[in-house]
């Protein structure tokens, strides 16, 4: 999260176990539906078998894309997301990909 913030991205944490706390200056929400603003990308840090639930929440929240972290592979969830019009990245890490592609920081 901090790495993405350092590169100019706003990251809104969602974690029912620590709802109401703050992480790197951002309030932690219980679920995506509570955020109340457009969601570009849902970065999924869940076991592969639990990723489907996060994908379904992303679809319902109107997210534009889902990103499943390294080791998170769920073909059924990816197919549902793509069928709903979301872009899908699976089994990758944004930190590694940003460094690999040497993307510039986003201007605020």
From TrEMBL:
What broad taxonomic lineage does this protein's source fall under? Answer: Bacteria, Pseudomonadati, Pseudomonadota, Alphaproteobacteria, Sphingomonadales
Pfam families annotated for this entry? Answer: CoA_binding_2
The CoA-binding domain, residue ranges: 3-72
Protein's name according to its UniProt entry:
CoA-binding domain-containing protein
């Amino acid at each position: 999260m901090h790495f993405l913030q350092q590169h100019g991205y706003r990251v809104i944490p969602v974690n029912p176990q620590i709802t109401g706390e703050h992480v790197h200056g951002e309030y932690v929400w219980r679920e995506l539906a509570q955020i109340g603003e457009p969601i570009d990308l849902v970065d999924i840090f869940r076991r592969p078998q639990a990723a489907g639930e996060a994908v379904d929440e992303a679809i319902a929240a109107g997210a534009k894309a889902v990103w499943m972290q390294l080791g998170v592979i769920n073909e059924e969830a990816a197919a549902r997301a793509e069928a709903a019009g979301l872009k899908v990245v699976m089994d990758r890490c944004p930190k590694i990909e940003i460094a690999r592609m040497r993307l510039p920081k986003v201007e605020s």
